[in-house]
Amino acid sequence: MESPRFLSGKLLLAMPGIGDPRFEHAVIAMCVHDENGAVGIGIGHQRAGIGVRGLLEQLGIDPGETPDTPVLHGGPVEPGRGFVLHSDDWGGQDTIAVTGLGALTGTIDVLKAIAEGRGPSRYLIALGYAGWGEGQLDEEMTRPGWFAADGRQQILFETPTAERWEATFKAEGIDPRLLDSGAGAA
Q1: Assigned fold of 11-178
Q2: Where do runs of H (alpha helix) occur along the chain?
Q3: Predicted structure pTM score
């Protein structure tokens, strides 16, 4: 069995019945996971009432021809802070590589580049993130609740938001309809 450590580049899926409504059907793109903790960006739920164009306007950035794609709910930590998970054909200040998924940028320069048509070719914009302290995710992975799947760019950039959870399980050869949402009894 693969060690739960170092899940960077994986997609972390909340199992049915995880017990935390904030993570119901969550799909989290794991961007950093090391001895200091873990950071992931939720890619399975949209923020209500805001699209990319509206977000850019709120930040004082002329959206130009930017498509009005959804802004995602990246996670419960710092829900007002933005992150862009994007293809690796663009890099700016503080961009970090995310093996298998592309790159992550949390600074406004990427939003300006997107609005000006010189940003990454593919991107997802999220507010907030999921974070775990030192050893916390490692411990959580030893009990039921999370499933680590291979990171696939087609899930991130080509699959509609609402379909990512199911599509990721299917890509792993798992029929999500067969997953039990309740605890078993012996």
Answers
A1: VC0467-like (3.40.1740)
A2: 52-58, 108-115, 136-140, 153-158, 164-171
A3: 0.91
How far apart are alpha carbons 105 and 167 in whole angstroms?
25
User: For 97-119, what is each residue's pLDDT tens digit?
Assistant: 999 999 999 999 999 999 999 99
The residue whose two tokens read 């087609």 is: 154
The domain locations on the chain are 11-178
Residue 105 region, left (φ>0) first, then alpha (ψ -120 to 50), else beta? beta
Beta-sheet pairing, 70-73 with 123-132? parallel
Sequence-ordered list of residues with C-beta below 8 angstroms from that of 81, at least 6 positions apart, any chain: 106, 127, 128, 129
CB 161 within 8 A of CB 43: yes
CA distance 35 to 32: 10
